[in-house]
Amino acid sequence: MERRERVLQNGGMTAPALPLIALDGPSGVGKSTTAKRVAARLGWQYLDTGAMYRAAALAVHRSGIALEDRAALEVLLAGLDLTQNAGRMYLAGEDVSDAIRSPEITLLVTPVSADARVREVLVDQQRRIGNLGRWVVDGRDIGTVVFTRACCKVFLTASPEARARRRFLELEAKGQTPDFDAVLADLNRRDLADSTRAASPLCKAEDATELDSSDLSLDEVVDWVVAKHLAHP
Ligand code: DC
């Protein structure tokens, strides 16, 4: 597909829009599944930035360093080797896709992703990966910080109860016996942490379109994002 660029007016300056879909929103809203499906429909690549923060948290966990030890953190960040391929997350070549979803790492990723220096390093890596466009990127700050020139910005929401219900069913499908109230409490904890942190808190970009997916199927959300993109490629 031919690379299409349009021009954004930006305070009198013109900057070419990047052919990239920025998909932001709170935990458990279905961003990754949506982003993967949208990317497949467009023939674009998919970048899961949450998985990058989780892999960084796993690296911190394994190294045993405290985030307060800034010198040790710098060394760790300088050697942080993160790659994604075919939906899998690799840390120094090791497939850590399952390890980064453990409850321990899900707790630790909150302070790690709130660290301004960690964010600086990961945002830099994300920009280097996506700078030529034709990516669907999901996260919390993609439209507001990482790719402000993205041609299509979507802020996906759903009520905490709808998100907890989906997560509950996902865990049941994996053979687990989740407790609904615990799943909901964990989502509320992460919403609060993500939206109140000082460094790049979760918020909708001014030029993003919000979609409340509480009563929509995955197919409907994917169709909506693809249609929005195709209307203003
Ligand atoms: O999307 P997720 O739950 O896998 O994200 C893991 C954590 O990383 C979550 O606590 C929010 C954080 N995150 C972030 O701060 N910025 C991003 N661009 C993506 C994720």
Helix content percent band: 40-55%
Low-confidence stretches: 1-12
Ligand names: 2'-deoxycytidine-5'-monophosphate
Q: Radius of gyration over alpha carbons? A: 18 Å
Element pattern in H and E: EEEHEHHEEEHHEHEHHEH
In whole angstroms, the N-to-C terminal distance is 12 Å
Kindly state the number of beta strands: 10
- Major sheet attributes: 5 strands, parallel
Q: Proportion of β residues?
A: 15-25%
The tally of helices reads 9
**Average pLDDT reading:** 92
Tell me, briefly, the overall form: globular
Helix/strand/pairing category: alpha/beta
**Major β-sheet strand ordering:** 4-8-3-9-10
Note the main attributes of this structure.
five-stranded parallel sheet; alpha/beta; binds 2'-deoxycytidine-5'-monophosphate; three-stranded antiparallel sheet
Question: What does it look like?
Answer:
The protein is an alpha/beta fold. Helix content is 48%, strand content 20%. It contains 9 helices and 10 strands. The model is unreliable at 1-12 (pLDDT under 50). Bound molecules: 2'-deoxycytidine-5'-monophosphate. 2'-deoxycytidine-5'-monophosphate (DC) binds at residues 27, 49-51, 53-54, 109-110, 113, 139-141, 190, 194.
Gist of the model:
With 233 residues, the chain is an alpha/beta fold. It has helices spanning 31-42, 49-63, 70-78, 103-114, 116-130, 142-146, 160-173, 180-196, 218-231; strands at residues 7-10, 13-16, 18-24, 45-48, 82-85, 88-91, 94-95, 135-139, 150-157, 209-212. The chain is built from nine helices and ten strands.
